[in-house]
Design a protein that fits this description.
The protein has about 270 residues and is α+β, with helices and mostly antiparallel strands. It contains ten helices and six strands. The chain is about 60% helix and about 10% strand. The two termini are about 35 Å apart.
C-alpha cells in the first residue's frame, strides 16, 4: 500500500515538473485549380491527341492535392520554413546562448543540423491528418508555447500557399514563352487553335494566382491560442495510473525478494526448538 501511494505521489510530482505541451490546429480544404475543370479540360478533350503529336504536353492536375500535400510535408519546404523564421534557437533552446546570440560551444554541445531539426519538427511537433471522407486536411502543431504554436501553424499554411502560387505563376509564364515560340513556326490551323486555347488557360492561371492568396489550401478554421489548462501533455490520467502501477509493482517485487530470504531463518528457528 505504501509503495502504491509513493508511486502515485511520484506520478503527480512528475506532472507538476513537466512543461505543458499544447496542440493547435488549422483546418484546410484543398483548392481545386480552375484549369482542371475549365478551359484546360476543354482543350484536353478537343485537342489532346493533336497536342501530343505536336509535342505539347497538357498539365495533369488530377493529383494536385497529393502533390501539394507532399510539398507541405517535404524536407525541403520544412527546412526552408525553419530557417526563414529562425526557429532552431527555439527548438533547441538549451543549446542556444541568448546573451551572445549564438550556439553554445561547451564540450559535448554542438549546433543542431538542418536535417536533425527536420526530423525533430516532423516527428514531434507537426502532424498532418488527411480525412479522405470529408476531403479536409488538419495541420496540427504541438509545442510548449501556445502563442508560438499558433504563429507557426498559420504561417506554415501561408508559406506553402505562397510557394505553390509563385511556382504556378513561374510555370505558366514559361509555358506561355514556349507556346509563343511554337506559334512563330507557323503550325497548322488546328494546332494553332489548340496553342491559343492553351495560352488562354495559362493567362487565366496567372491571373487567378495573382488575386488568390489561398492558392493551394483554403483555410476553413485558422489556429487559435488554446486556454492555459487545455494542454495535451502531460496526461494526468496516464501519470497517476502509471505511478500507481509502478509503485505496486515495486512493492510486490520487494515482498517477493523478502519471502525467500525469510524462509531459511524460519527453518533455523524451527530446528532450534
Amino acid at each position: 500500500m505504501a509503495f502504491g501511494v509513493a508511486g502515485l505521489a511520484m506520478g503527480v510530482g512528475v506532472g507538476f515538473l513537466t512543461t505543458p505541451v499544447y496542440r493547435v490546429e488549422v483546418l484546410l480544404a484543398p483548392v481545386q485549380s480552375e484549369r482542371a475543370t475549365g478551359a484546360l479540360g476543354a482543350v484536353a478533350s478537343q485537342f489532346g491527341e493533336l497536342t501530343s503529336l505536336a509535342g505539347l504536353s497538357l498539365p495533369n492536375l488530377s493529383n494536385s492535392r497529393a502533390v501539394h500535400l507532399a510539398q507541405m510535408t517535404s524536407r525541403r519546404f520544412t527546412q526552408t520554413f525553419l530557417a526563414t523564421h529562425n526557429l532552431l534557437p527555439l527548438l533547441y533552446a538549451k543549446r542556444w546562448d541568448k546573451l551572445q546570440a549564438r550556439w553554445r560551444t561547451e564540450e559535448g554541445i554542438r549546433p543542431p543540423t538542418s536535417d536533425e531539426a527536420f526530423v525533430y519538427f516532423d516527428r514531434r511537433i507537426r502532424k498532418i491528418r488527411d480525412d479522405r471522407k470529408t476531403g479536409l486536411i488538419t495541420l496540427s502543431i504541438e509545442w510548449r508555447n501556445r502563442q508560438q504554436a499558433v504563429e507557426w501553424a498559420n504561417q506554415m499554411v501561408a508559406d506553402i500557399n505562397e510557394e505553390i502560387r509563385q511556382r504556378e505563376i513561374s510555370q505558366s509564364q514559361q509555358a506561355l514563352e514556349y507556346l509563343s515560340r511554337e506559334l512563330t513556326k507557323g503550325p497548322p490551323v488546328g494546332l494553332r487553335e489548340a496553342i491559343f486555347r492553351l495560352m488562354e488557360t495559362h493567362v487565366k492561371s496567372i491571373m487567378m494566382a495573382n488575386v488568390r492568396r489561398d492558392f493551394a489550401f483554403q483555410v476553413i478554421d485558422p489556429a487559435v491560442v488554446p486556454d492555459e489548462d487545455r494542454y495535451v501533455r502531460p496526461s494526468w490520467l496516464i501519470l497517476i495510473a502509471g505511478g500507481l502501477l509502478v509503485g505496486v509493482f515495486l512493492g510486490m517485487l520487494l515482498v517477493a525478494r523478502r519471502i525467500p530470504a525469510a524462509a531459511p531463518l524460519a527453518a533455523e528457528q524451527s530446528e532450534a526448538r
